[in-house]
Design a protein that fits this description.
alpha+beta, binds dihydroflavine-adenine dinucleotide, 394 residues, flavoprotein, BaiN-like_dom_sf
């Protein structure tokens, strides 16, 4: 067992999106450590392997936080256009998929390679398979004990950057280390919860619909999202569901407009005039996937022909389809959540530099902080922007 001491200006804990970007900005005298075998693992699997690295339209309204103003400064000082310029400078081809979401044409690993090459050019060091055993602050410096597969190493740093992210997907190495260390240094932690996560329901509730996807507007009294809704064996997923999950609390209903923009009331009344003998389910099949009509037919007694329908029944049916109400039993939790809501309270951080107000030299950024983006490249943009804010400050 050795006790070598390494002296650095800045020690960054966590070589994910934010840690890599901060190290690339901060340059020589910076040491970046991670317990994983490879850096940026979430970047690698993000966006279905193509990394939705930013969005054309980024604003504070795309983020959740106890303090919705906190993210403004960092997002304004390093924008999506700055990151697009970086990506383009590295010759990485990209495209807009939908709703301003930018993806690599090729593999997401291009983004990791880009960050690593920036990091090397800046002269920062990266140690992988390195765990953090202990962090102390004494005489104006951080004294950190690291563990490299049984070998202890001590690092003394002027600045310490908490970039170990949130709790989402523990199988990929996510831990609550940033929260524990922030707490140790007097920071408040806003209660964390899984976000951008599928809803679960009683077993078998949507088995007959597994794989069916419909354009929908999903809402509750806090938010509404017009995107695809996907039925799965376990419950509801798809972009609309992931988005709303960040605004949902246990025990609440969610409401889906299953035929957004379609005048169901008018459509059925007109069809009743011209095709009165047509089965109601056949007519609805023109508006919705057949499996969904069959599922709704059971729950809402959709029987008979169009001619059988009274005006009241048509209106009631239109209300059901435009305001289909379901109560999730829960979510799939951190096991599959794309991000963690909550985290290190922004009250204790300076919004320009992300430095601690309690302990000068301590910084927190990325997902570890109580700033959580929507689905669509917003979380990476926060990681890049908060990292640049830290990189410029240290
Ligand atoms: P991040 O999680 O990236 O990095 C934290 C690092 O710290 C990791 O390398 C980890 O190994 C390390 N670490 C953790 N605990 C440690 C410990 N105790 N000791 C040492 N090291 C430790 N966002 C987006 O904008 N577009 C997208 O396409 C996607 N897609 C996506 C898909 C999936 C499946 C997931 C799970 C997430 C996304 N996201 C996303 C979200 C995005 O990945 C996430 O918000 C950022 O990676 C957060 O960056 P951070 O650097 O803060 O944490």
């Amino acid at each position: 067992m050795s006790d070598r001491v390494t002296r650095v200006n800045t020690l960054i804990l966590g070589a994910g999106a934010a840690g890599l970007m901060a190290a690339a900005q901060a340059g020589p005298g910076v040491l970046l450590v991670d317990h994983a075998r490879a850096p940026g693992e979430k970047i690698r699997i993000s966006g279905g392997g193509r990394c939705n690295f930013t969005n054309l339209d980024v604003g504070p309204e795309n983020y959740l936080s106890e303090n919705p103003h906190f993210c403004k400064s960092a997002l304004a000082r390093y924008t999506q256009w700055d990151f697009i310029e970086l990506v383009s400078r590295h010759g990485i081809a990209w495209h807009e998929k939908t709703l301003g979401q930018l993806f690599c044409d090729g593999k997401a690993t291009q983004i990791i390679d880009m960050l690593l090459s920036e990091l090397r050019a800046a002269g920062a060091d990266l140690w992988l398979q390195t765990s953090i055993a202990e962090v102390r602050h004494a005489e104006g410096r951080f004294h950190v004990t690291l563990d490299q597969q049984g070998t202890r190493r001590k690092v003394v740093a002027d600045s310490l950057v908490l970039a170990t992210g949130g709790k989402s997907i523990p199988k990929m190495g996510a831990t609550g280390l940033a929260y524990d260390l922030a707490r140790q240094f007097g920071h408040e932690i806003i209660e964390t919860r899984p976000a951008l996560v599928p809803f679960t329901f009683d077993k078998g509730r949507f088995t007959d619909l597994a794989g069916v996807s419909v354009p929908a507007v999903l809402s509750n009294n806090r938010a509404r999202f017009a995107e695809a809704l996907l039925f799965t064996h376990r419950g509801l997923s798809g972009p609309a569901v992931l988005q709303l999950s960040s605004y949902w609390r246990e025990g609440e209903d969610v409401i889906a407009d299953l035929a957004p923009g379609v005048d169901i009331d008018g459509h059925l009344k007109a069809a009743r005039q011209t095709n009165g003998r047509r089965a109601l389910t056949t007519e609805l099949g023109a508006l919705l996937p057949a499996k969904l009509v069959a599922h709704l037919a059971q729950a809402h007694e959709l029987t008979g022909t169009l001619a059988d329908l009274t005006n009241e029944r048509v209106t009631a049916l239109a209300e059901v389809l435009h305001g289909w109400r379901v109560k999730p039993t829960g979510t799939e939790g951190y096991r599959t959540a794309e991000v963690t809501l909550g985290g290190i309270s922004t009250d204790g951080l300076d919004s320009k530099t992300l430095m601690s107000k309690h302990l000068p030299g301590l910084y927190a950024l990325g997902e570890a902080v109580d700033v959580t983006g929507w689905l669509g490249g917003y979380n990476f943009q926060w990681a890049w922007a908060s990292a640049v804010a830290v990189g410029r400050a240290i």
